[in-house]
Inverse folding.
């Protein structure tokens, strides 16, 4: 089956990101496909390159990047959610004259249309939030 | 047409679980995850909560969340599932409603 | 950003259940944005207010007092976007003493059975 | 020694307000802010909630939050305060307990 | 980072009330860190578990199963930091059927009156 | 009076940051002093320079920066909370080999000791969270 996964929370502050990560690993292992990973609301913090977890903690953003690269998963970080939370790619950093950018290379900034499109083309849609 | 309802909060903390229960229909499945697993610990209040479920609704609880929290005696009405079981439930039902 | 139109597949029925009160959290805003996006991409949309979400329908909101954006001001735009199916859960209104309150927009007040029917006829249900 | 208790959630959503009420003592003050202001709207459930407050506990509600939410008829037991009143309550009581 | 020691003023009594269950949110961890910091800076510390916070005291937690850090493993370090006053609210234990459960560390089970006394004798109370 | 204000939530996702901002403005207007602003847990997102709110929304991080500069308020962003959430100053960005930093110049990364110290030296401590 083709599954779209939507993540609404930041890593660590709530458990939902870690649960979503385990769900995706289990789905891929069972031979299913992830049609799209859509980070929405606070979930965009999963796509920051600057997070530095304590050593004895699972690095959730890094785990997402590894999973995405390993399986070539189409990954979107919602642009309106990301801008508001200070998650920018180079283009948006230039547009809003910010001196830094911190969006993971494994994610693309795009709009809610990509979630609607994914919903129309996936067999299942699962949300993780708090 | 049947739905999988996933709930991550116990009824003691919010209205989320009660609202989900209100919309369950025969053939649906309920899966407790994260903090929702506290709702299937064997207590008087929880036993009361699960009495009037619609017929033919299957109840499941995510084992990793039970183990993490040290809950050893979940109510027997709940089938224990691992992550693979979570995926299977999603595939077996037409849609997944995530209550959080 | 190019939005890949989903035109090349027949429209789906998407139900959005907004369950949180306004201003304390931003989820109501996030739900409204999803409803608008679904409508722009020609999906059939059901917009349901339930639990504390019914507080979003109260009249006379003045969020400028707390430096917040007025959520209910956007309800007017819903019909422009083609969102006609707007519902409020009767039990939630009753529990909060709002069963006779003047609401910020016309809604279809529905009971459990009607909500279950909406869910059955939806391809996907989002709850924020 | 008296405390100001600040609560930002209504009792319908979480245990926060009920736990605060349990620890209120004579001479303390209670201030409802943000979503907590829903707890002083004039409904049957709310009137019940406020019946057994300890003697000599003053109740206040932050007006900007009431106005933002369109609540026009707060229960009369609640004094309306603006931000300056919030600051004043903090100064008048030895400590502030923020329940969220 | 230089930590400006607060040695130059007599120690204060700080009470920390931890009210949330473990792992669903990170607040319990944040509360524990504050308790440790207060102890390191020689304050008199009261550490209270209340409402869903009493779930943090359950024995046999295996958070590795969900890739989380074991909160209860740190309870042992509390006495090393000089944190001796650890309490659990009796009503919260009762409501959750935990009044006879084996707990992850020795705690003083207290009632409302004792909690009110703790608050009265504290210079500041933090609730997370 | 000297008041320490502790903020535990990110701007916009919860109302607490906006309420804390209004509280500080009212306290200063009434002639009180803010001994220290301590951003803890998700509150550290208030000290990001990269957040870009929608035009019709109050720019909360910018409002904090203006208030801090105008009144010279001692402001700390808790280092352990900030690192985990991807809020870094240049020093931490170098230490953890991240290619960008996003901590506001008006805030200093420091530890919980600064909160304990502030509690010992303030007349009042007020927390804002969710």
């Amino acid at each position: 089956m083709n599954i779209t996964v939507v993540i609404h929370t930041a890593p660590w502050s709530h458990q939902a990101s870690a649960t979503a990560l385990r769900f995706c690993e289990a789905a891929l292992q069972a031979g299913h496909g992830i049609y799209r990973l859509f980070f929405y609301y606070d979930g965009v913090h999963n796509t920051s390159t600057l997070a530095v977890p304590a050593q004895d903690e699972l690095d959730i953003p890094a785990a997402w990047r590894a999973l995405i690269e390993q399986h070539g998963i189409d990954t979107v970080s919602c642009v309106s959610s990301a801008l508001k939370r200070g998650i920018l790619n180079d283009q948006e950093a230039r547009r809003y004259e910010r001196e830094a950018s911190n969006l993971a290379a494994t994610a693309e900034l795009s709009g809610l249309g990509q979630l609607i499109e994914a919903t129309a083309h996936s067999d299942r849609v699962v949300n993780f939030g708090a | 047409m049947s739905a999988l309802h996933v709930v991550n909060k116990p009824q003691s903390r919010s209205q989320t679980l009660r609202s989900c229960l209100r919309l369950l229909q025969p053939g649906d499945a309920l899966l407790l995850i994260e903090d929702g697993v506290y709702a299937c610990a064997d207590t008087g209040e929880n036993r009361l909560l699960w009495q009037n479920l619609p017929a033919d609704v299957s109840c499941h609880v995510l084992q990793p969340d039970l183990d993490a929290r040290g809950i050893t005696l979940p109510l027997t009405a709940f089938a224990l599932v691992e992550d693979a079981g979570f995926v299977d439930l999603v595939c077996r039902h037409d849609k997944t409603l995530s209550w959080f | 950003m190019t939005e890949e139109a989903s035109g090349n597949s027949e429209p789906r029925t998407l139900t959005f259940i907004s369950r949180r009160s306004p201003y304390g959290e931003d989820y109501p805003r996030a739900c409204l944005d999803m409803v608008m996006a679904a409508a722009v991409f020609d999906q059939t949309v059901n917009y349901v207010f339930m639990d504390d979400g019914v507080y979003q329908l109260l009249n006379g909101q003045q969020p400028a007092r707390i430096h917040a954006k007025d959520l209910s001001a956007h309800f007017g735009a819903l019909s422009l976007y083609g969102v006609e199916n707007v519902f409020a859960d009767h039990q939630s209104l009753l529990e909060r003493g709002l069963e006779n309150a003047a609401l910020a927009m016309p809604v279809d007040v529905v009971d459990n059975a009607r909500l279950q029917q909406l869910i059955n006829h939806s391809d996907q249900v989002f709850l924020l």
